[in-house]
Amino acid sequence: MEKITTHTGVGVPLRRSNVDTDQIIPAVYLKRVTRTGFEDALFAAWRSDPSFVLNQEAYSAGSVLVAGPDFGTGSSREHAVWALKDYGFRVVLASRFADIFRGNSGKQGLVAGMVAQEDIELLWKILEAKPGTEVTVDLETRTVHADDVTVPFQIDEYTRWRLMEGLDDIGLTLQNEADITAFEEKRAAWRPKTLPAKHLPKVDIEPARPVS
Amino acid sequence: MAGTLAEKVWEAHLVRQGADGAPDLLYIDLHLVHEVTSPQAFEGLRLAGRPVRRPDLTIATEDHNTPTLDIDLPIADLTSRTQIDTLRNNAAEFGVRIHSLGDADQGIVHQVGPQLGLTMPGLTVVCGDSHTSTHGAFGALAFGIGTSEVEHVLATQTLPLAPFKTMAITVDGELPPGATSKDIILAIIAKIGTGGGQGYVLEYRGEAIRRLSMEARMTICNMSIEAGARAGMIAPDETTFDYLKGRPHAPEGEDWDTAVEYWKTLRSDDDAVFDEEVVLRASDLEPFVTWGTNPGQGLPLSANVPVPAEIADEGERVSAERALEYMGLEAGMPLRDVTVDTVFIGSCTNGRIEDLRSVAKVLRGRTKAEDVRVLVVPASARVRLQAETEGLDVIFKEFGAEWRNAGCSMCLGMNPDQLAPGERAASTSNRNFEGRQGKGGRTHLVSPLVAAATAIRGTLSSLSDLDLEGDVDLTTFDGTPLAPLTAPSFV
Ligand code: SF4
Fold first, then answer.
1. Which residues of A touch B384 (CB under 8 A)?
2. How far apart, in whole angstroms, are the C-alpha atoms of residue B192 and residue B188?
3. Which residue from A67, A124, A70 is spatially nearest to A99, judged by alpha carbons?
4. Which residues of A touch B199 (CB under 8 A)?
5. Angle at CA B161, nearest 5°, toward B32 and B122?
6. Is position B221 annotated in a ligand binding site?
7. What is the mean pLDDT of chain B?
8. Measured between alpha carbons, how far is B217 from B187 in angstroms, rounded to an integer?
9. CA of B297 to the centre of ligand 1 (A)
10. What does the alpha-carbon distance between residue A123 and residue A152 come to, in Å, rounded to a whole number?
11. In a 10 Å sphere around its CB, with 0-12 CB exposed, 13-18 middle and 19+ buried, how is residue A11 labelled?
């Protein structure tokens, strides 16, 4: 994972609340099995609307998304984070995020910063008044800076540290492998195992056919 | 120290306590895998040269992309086929058990775990799917994770997690006839909002919850995520133990006794402190339907579509206006006047045997409204078999419904079962987001009973709109298990 301490890029005002992950990336795009190349899928349903913010020249190269409350609700699809990253976003700011989305963001190096709603409104005003304004997000000081305004944002300590160190989660956990093994040795016998598989009697399944 | 159910399960899985703001490291008992959120995780393992640490705690099934017709033919949609083939190849390469299309244990991942007896009280259960909260109905701590976390669990069988907050939701009293557990959860979401559960594990309790069958409890826990919560839980009791006993992977002999003894300790202590408490009276509830484009936009069926101009909060007003426009509804019109094109009965919320039984009871001997398409999609192949053993499939077919093979189907429309633009559905699934069931499709979330009544009348309806004959015993619709079966039980 790439280290990130500060990021500066064009801010994109997304004046919508409750942007769920189906809006960020509709389910049809989830069929892909790769980990990259989702930029075309981002906000797919809205992108066909010429007035949609990303279709405006000044914002199209944006990398800091400033959204309404409850961003990333709904399905746990991490594709939402990949799509945002593949498009070029490095930071999303909102007053509230869905938990899973926030977790996914941290793991993928997308900064999800919580900014008070009145500060979001402030940023929206700046970005709308001067389209193309660059926003600087500083993880060190936990501040967002745009034009002549600086506002604080919140992010949990651990995620911030990992983002700044660019650390891979699995590697970190495997440093504690001895603890995991010790835990496994104490696990109760009744806890289920999927293998060897136990089945009910095998039964053939009839395929349903279209009703004519 | 007094603790909540969630805290007890959490503590029993601590591999390592987090220090200095680092999260706790939690052991994962059961990892469920499906084709949509796993390919990139397996790819990650492969790239890093890591094995699956515990294939024996992992199980995969195909559900989101699987067709519900012609399942013996190759999948027509190329991307769907690729995703399923990828899962099969990954399962073979990493030694993970898989239940593929055509197998009796194939089905929606949140039905397969419980029916095999793999989901039990006191476990930590994860899956790359937000509706993993379903398994909380057994008193497991079960939650959805993203693909990076799927990879993390595959590689380490653990997850770094910051503790959740806890919320008690007490549902007192008795459900009135015709209301179901689906109405309980829709009412809860309408009350606390789609963000109301954020950061919380919800624990459902109270008399109305205790009286519910496992299937009905699963419906409630399933939709916890629609209130924004990470997980929903219900303390295990005799209903839970009865459901589990004798299932393929349930403990046996002495192990069963030890397990039950432990499971009985899995309840919130009387003096446990929750971060938040909500109380609801079941007797006040009536069948609920959603009118908007998020699950919090729901109202009793007897209500009218909201008038946005009357909503004080600006955000809510704008969102209601948008929703009504998308849904093609007139402000102030009675919800009962809304005509539907499709009725979808299925999904991990309401595609279980109890759901199909209650629907069949209503549909038996009645005829479908003209021009309404009715799809009945069992949650798993076992549920389908069970329904066929009980003759439910015949009732559905005689009614004019399509009886399909198992899978997620129209819940999210990743297979050909989709709504056309502008088409309106009464759906027993869990999400009414824009385009969820097909581009431009309009979704009203309903209980199986409302779905059944709607299929008969063609407009959003409840049982009270039907002229029910004496043979339909309303009291069996409160979620308590229906009459003992003469047929062998698979699910
Ligand atoms: S039935 Fe619907 S909600 Fe459930 S797992 Fe499938 S897609 Fe998700």
1. 205
2. 6
3. A70
4. 99
5. 55
6. no
7. 93
8. 15
9. 20
10. 12
11. buried
What angle (nearest 5°) sits at the alpha carbon of residue B79, between those of residues B76 and B81? 55
d(CA B443, CA B422): 10
pLDDT confidence of residue B474: 53
**B348 known member of a binding site:** yes
Instruction: Match 């099995």 to its residue by tokens.
Output: A33
How much is the average pLDDT of B14-42? 93
Q: Where are the alpha helices (DSSP H) in chain A?
A: 21-24, 44-47, 79-87, 99-108, 117-129, 157-165, 169-174, 177-185
| Residue B483 predicted with pLDDT over 60 | no
Collect all residues of chain A within an 8 Å Cβ-Cβ radius of residue B414.
27-28, 30-31
One DSSP character per residue, B168-196 reads EEEEES-PPTT--HHHHHHHHHHHH-TTT
* Ligand 1 within 6 A of CB of B427: no
CA–CA separation, B342 and A193 (whole Å) = 40
For the cut 80, the answer to whether the pLDDT of residue B482 exceeds it is no
Instruction: Point out the residue among B37, B145, B436 whose CB comes nearest to the CB of A22.
Output: B436
Residue nearest to atom 2 of ligand 1 (CA): B411
Would the pLDDT of B475 be above 60? Answer: no
Q: In what order do the strands lie in the sheet with B30-33?
A: B97-99, B58-61, B30-33, B124-127, B141-144
- Across the interface, do B146 and A197 touch by the CB < 8 Å criterion? no
Contact A119, A151 (CB under 8 A): yes
